[in-house]
Amino acid sequence: MPVSDRIALLASLIREADSVVALTGAGISVPSGIPDFRTPGTGLWENVDPMEVAHIDAWRADPERFWHFYGNRFQTLHDKQPNGAHAALVELERRGKLDAVVTQNIDMLHRKAGARELVEVHGTIEHSSCLTCRAQYPLDDVQSRLDASPLSVPHCDCGEPLKPDVVLFGEFLPEGALQRAYELAAGADVLLCIGSSLEVHPIAQLPGVTSANGGKVAVVTSGPTSWDGRCAVKLDGDVVAELQAVVAAL
C-alpha cells in the first residue's frame, strides 16, 4: 500500500476512534538530536555496556562511574527541544483526538512540547532523589551539585549520592505509572506505537493488551517490530513528516 494510503488509513482510524493512546519510544526523539539505544554506529549502547553504567547495582557500587555516564547524558539532554512529532501529538490532544501519551523516554520532550496527559513509565531526568532521606532535587540543582562535586557525583544535603528518577536496569517500573499505562491500553480503540522497537518489557505487552480488548494497533516506527504483521497500519519513514501528514489528513 502506498505511503499516502497508509497515512489516510491511520487518519481514518484516529478520526473514528473514541479513544486513542500513543506509546512512544526513543525513535520519536531522534529528530531532536537524541540518539536511540540500538542503532548500529549511533546507538547509546553501541560502545557502553548498560549493565555496567545504567544498572541500579552500578549506582550503588560505583556512583562516580555511574554519574560520569549519566552526567554526560544529562548535559546532552538538558538543552534538547521537542520536534514536529512531539508537536503533532500535542495537536492531536488539543483536538480531543488523543487521550494520553505513554512514553518510555526520560528526556522531558513530551512535557516541553505541552503534553497534558503524560505517563512516564521509565521515569524522567527532570529530578533526582536521595534514597536515604527521600529528598528530591530538580535537574538544574542536580547539575549544579554535579559540577561542584570534586568526584563529579551530586550529593543530597544529607551527604548521600543522588539517584536520577529514571528506572535503571534491575529496578521495577513505578507501579502507578505501569497500572495507568495498562488501563489506557486496555481502553484504547487505537494504540499508536511511535518510535519504539516494542522489545522492552513489560511495556512491549501494551499492544497485546489493546488488541485483546478489541482495539487496533498502529505502528509508526523506522525498522522492524514484532507487530509489523499484525498491526492495522505500519508507517516506517520519517516520523515527523508522517505524523504531521496524519494530523493534516484529519
How would you describe this protein?
The protein has 250 residues and is an alpha/beta fold. The protein has a 6-stranded parallel sheet with strand order 3-2-1-7-8-9, with helices on both faces. Strands 5-4-6 form a 3-stranded antiparallel sheet. α1 (3-16) crosses α10 (239-249) and α5 (84-94) runs parallel beside α10. It is elongated, with a radius of gyration of 19 Å. The protein is 39% helix and 16% strand. The two termini are 19 Å apart. It contains 10 helices and 9 strands. The longest helix has 16 residues, at 63-78. The chain folds into 2 domains: 1-34 and 82-122 and 172-250, Rossmann fold, CATH 3.40.50; 35-79 and 124-166, SIR2/SIRT2 'Small Domain' (2-Layer Sandwich).
Strand order of the largest sheet: 3-2-1-7-8-9
Radius of gyration equals: 19 Å
- Sheet of most strands: 6 strands, parallel
Number of domains: 2
Mean residue pLDDT? 91
Distance between the termini: 19 Å
Might you state the CATH topology name of the largest domain?
Answer: Rossmann fold
- What's the total helix number? 10
Under the CATH scheme, the architecture of the largest domain is 3-Layer(aba) Sandwich
Order of helices and strands: HEHHHHEHEEEHEHEHEEH
| Number of E-type strands | 9
CATH-defined superfamily of the largest domain: TPP-binding domain
Low-confidence stretches: none
Query: Quick one: CATH class of the largest domain?
Result: Alpha Beta
List keywords for this structure.
single chain, 250 residues, alpha/beta, Rossmann fold, SIR2/SIRT2 'Small Domain', six-stranded parallel beta sheet, three-stranded antiparallel beta sheet, 10 helices, 9 strands
